[in-house]
Specification:
The chain is built from 12 helices and 8 strands. The chain has helices at residues 3-7, 12-22, 25-28, 33-49, 65-71, 84-93, 133-146, 160-170, 174-177, 197-206, 225-229, 233-246, and strands at residues 55-59, 76-81, 100-104, 118-123, 147-159, 194-195, 210-216, 258-264. Strands 1, 2, 3, 4, 5, 6, 7 and 8 form an 8-stranded mixed β-sheet that branches.
């Protein structure tokens, strides 16, 4: 099934399911040094906010990269994932000793989890797909409900403005023929929902999230992938330090395919 066929599917859950049969989430964060920038950046921000021990809920856990990383650091992890493709990929990586409870479910219904039962809640996939305001707010409300007072919430978005440039990098005719509003530069929300930085702030503030950090998770890494992937270890380490230096600068924030917002309950 190709993207045009998926676009015709009216049921949102089924559309998301089919999307991840096309997009290989299993390798997205680890297929190259450039791709790894997003993961390493997000992990750095999560680690600086976590207590030494505790419970993490990974909502929209994808193929398990974050859940597995933190479980193997000694955290108790509950992982919730909607799609069968990602669940299969996740299960292939699980070891018997991994302290992870993996469940299929939807981000707008976390009723299986008790109030105030997690030190941190990761929401790294759901807001890529929730079109309706009420569903976005339900997702945020549920994440808040299960987070302990003073706990941390981590939300990821896909940034509209950088994706325009990324699409142009792959499609030289994108500005002439791409699927976006030619006046506002708003992309069509398929196969993902694309947000400006201001949109992200509005969604989270409406949900009562006190924002601590706004982060350009991957910055220009996809556009610069060939050069980054050719770096030696020392040069790559220095590139990561440079990325960390600028990833919260307001003037660079929208120039990233992925955005991370860190909130406090």
């Amino acid at each position: 099934m190709d993207l045009q066929e998926i676009y015709q599917i009216k049921d949102e859950t089924q559309q998301i399911e089919k999307t991840y049969e096309v997009f290989q989430e299993d390798t997205r964060l680890n297929r190259s040094r450039a791709a790894r920038v997003e993961f390493l950046t997000n992990v750095r921000y999560i680690e600086q906010e976590l207590p030494p021990k505790g419970r993490i809920l990974d909502v929209g856990a994808g193929a398990g990269d974050y859940s597995l990383y933190f479980a193997r650091k000694g955290y108790e992890v509950c992982a919730l994932e909607l799609t069968q493709a990602n669940l299969r990929a996740f299960r292939r990586k699980l070891r018997p000793e991994d302290p992870i409870q993996l469940t299929q479910g939807n981000a707008i219904d976390l009723s299986r989890y008790a109030d105030e039962s997690f030190d941190a809640v990761l929401v790294f996939g759901p807001l890529y797909h929730l079109h309706r305001w009420e569903d976005q707010q339900k997702c945020i409300a549920e994440a808040k409900r299960v987070c302990k007072p003073g706990g941390r919430l981590f939300f990821a978005f896909i940034c509209n403005d950088m994706v325009v440039l990324t699409e142009f990098a792959y499609r030289p005719d994108f500005f002439a023929n791409g699927e976006y509003d030619k006046d506002t530069f708003k992309l069509g929300d398929f196969p993902f929902v694309f947000r400006t930085v201001a949109d992200c702030r509005s969604i989270l503030r409406a949900g009562g999230i006190h924002i601590l950090h706004e982060v350009a998770s991957d910055g220009a890494s996809e556009l610069m992938a060939d050069r980054i992937n050719a770096m030696n270890d020392a040069d790559y380490a220095q590139y990561l330090r440079y990325h960390q230096y600028l990833c919260e600068k307001p003037e660079f924030l929208g120039m990233s395919n992925h955005l991370l917002f860190v909130g406090e309950k």
